[in-house]
Amino acid sequence: MSADLHQIWVYLSASPLAGLTLTLVAYQIGLWIFEKLGRRPVLNPVLIAVILIAGTLSLSGIDYRTYFDGAQFVHFLLGPATVALAVPLHNQFQEVRRSAVALVAALLVGSAASALSAVALVWTFGGSTATILSMAPKSVTSPIAMGVSEQIGGLPSLTAVFVIITGIVAASLGTWVLNLVRVKDWRARGFGMGVAAHGIGTARALQVNEVAGAFAGLGMGLNGLATALLLPTLYHLIWG
Amino acid sequence: MLGTLTLLLLCQLVGDLAARLLHLPIPGPVLGMLLLFAGLLVRGDVPAAVQDTAGGLLRHLSLLFVPAGVGVMVHVTRLETEALPILVALFGSTLFGIAVTAKLMAFLLSRTDPRLEEEPATGEPAMGDRAKGDRT
User: Fold this and answer.
1) Are both B48 and B74 inside the same structural domain?
2) d(CA A39, CA B124)
3) How far apart are the CA of B46 and the nearest CA of chain A, in angstroms?
4) Domain map (residue ranges) of chain A
5) Which of A27, A135, A191 shows the shortest C-beta gap to B101?
6) B49 in a structural domain
7) Could you report the per-residue pLDDT of A19-45, keeping only the tens digit for each?
């Protein structure tokens, strides 16, 4: 009997089914807690899911690689989901066109503010060069951020972690900071979330308001483009 | 739904191929998004099926970040030794970035297109928004 159980365990811990199921179950639990406790942004479902999964893997001794073999099916959907952002963008196109000048100016300033303040803060508080370089592209969606990180000599997988934490910080505290600086316009609120905090910020904005969601998706896409194009150039100018 | 998924994957594939062939530093999915957007502009509207499937996928957008987030396990040592600079930078720059972007955008919009001021923006979803929230 126990030999059977052991064999089942060996099979399960190596099968993609386990990692995939664990991801979905943990996220559902995260959503459930988020809903039950009154949709407080601090109880971000991603944060809860990550803690649950990392805890489960540590306790059961399964390494991240094995887990990712299953979870990659979820990870893969980031691509099609990025493409799908064209839909809310199209829905709000009239709004977007009317505010084009403001969009471009806010994009360039906001993108530079996020990246430079991140780099400056790591440096000021004594972080290593690898951490500084991995931190620079953390405001954009993970496939782009990881590519840029590799280009400038950071650690792509560390960048991915910074990207996720950035998103969680924005989803948890973004509403608070937007109220603090007294921005009421949904277009500006959404755009700020998308530029500074990519898909997780966008997911949060979509939850709150459709206009904010469309502008967040746009901010995420535009900052992805801007960062992919400008950050490696800027890096070569500074570090040579 | 199947048709839309195929369409999304095709756009991504074309975007990926274009990025590789033309050596663009832009990721394939972003080019795919631009491609689909251009297609929708030409068509003039969004087919209902595309609207539904894209909406469904985007409602669970944050789920898709979970696998990469669990990668935090691999970097525990670095996160511990450099906890202070990393945390200060992540919190500081993210909140600063949101504030600067939104404030500047709101300022520029108020000069060119002053409206939407009447909308309540407590930041919490209105009841109507809650109802269509992301329960599965």
Assistant:
1) no
2) 9
3) 7
4) 2-76, 82-239
5) A191
6) yes
7) 999 999 999 999 999 989 887 777 888
Sign, CA torsion B15/B16/B18/B24: positive
B50 and B87 part of one domain: no
Do the Cβ atoms of A29 and A55 come closer than 8 Å?
Answer: no
Instruction: Identify whether B99 is part of a domain.
Output: yes
d(CA A196, CA B96): 9
Beta carbons of B108 and A105 less than 8 Å apart: yes
List of residues 6+ apart from A20 with CB closer than 8 A: A70, A71, A73, A74
Q: DSSP label at A42?
A: T
Among A123, A139, A225, A137, CA closest to A174: A139
Mark whether B70 and B54 lie in a shared domain: no
State how many domains chain B has.
2
Read off the pLDDT of residues A1-24 as tens digits, 9 standing for 90 and up. 577 878 887 777 777 888 999 999
Per-residue pLDDT tens over the stretch B15-43: 999 988 998 767 788 889 889 999 999 99
Lowest mean pLDDT across A15-29, A84-98, B47-61, B114-128: B114-128
Which residue among B41, B57, B117 places its CB closest to the CB of A81?
B57
Q: How confident is the model at residue B126 (pLDDT cuts 50, 70, 90)?
A: very low
Looking at beta carbons, which residues of chain B come within 8 Å of A213? 58
B34 interaction partners in chain A (CB closer than 8 Å): 86, 221
Q: Which residues of chain A neighbour B112 with C-beta distances below 8 Å?
A: 99, 101-102
Question: pTM for the full model?
Answer: 0.80
Q: Which of A184-188, B22-26, B79-83 has the lowest mean pLDDT?
A: B22-26
- Write down the ipTM of this complex: 0.84
Domain of residue B91 covers: 66-116
Q: Closest-CA residue in chain A for B32?
A: A83
